[in-house]
Model the fold of this input.
Amino acid sequence: MSNYIYELTLKVRDYECDLQGIVNNANYQHYLEHTRHEFLTSIGVSFAGLHKQGIDPVVARIHIAFKTPLVSGDEFVSKLYLKKEGVRYVFYQDIYRKSDSKTVIKATVETVCVVNGRFGPSELFDNIFAPYITE
Done:
């Protein structure tokens, strides 16, 4: 897909694998979250700084389709693009194994903002994300 606005290369660590020798399913959520946080950092946004301002982006829903497992030592590329749907920011995130470009997972992560303790729109995010929103 050519809509990707950010990508991050990572490597599977031994302790992320289960008894079957593949990455435990829960670790993919860590990879997805780390990618979103690094994306924010790359555009000059501090997740901790947002919290200090009373702005807390939170995950409302995640859907992950598992396609090909990763094993210890695999390098992979985590990519994302972003859409806005109402008050939700939806991150479309895909992970590919670097050695053969096989799709590992396809995910959608719906996020919403809590501003000063109340759910609602965030003008700050609307402004920050405007250049990155995919139609």
In short: The chain has a mean pLDDT of 95.
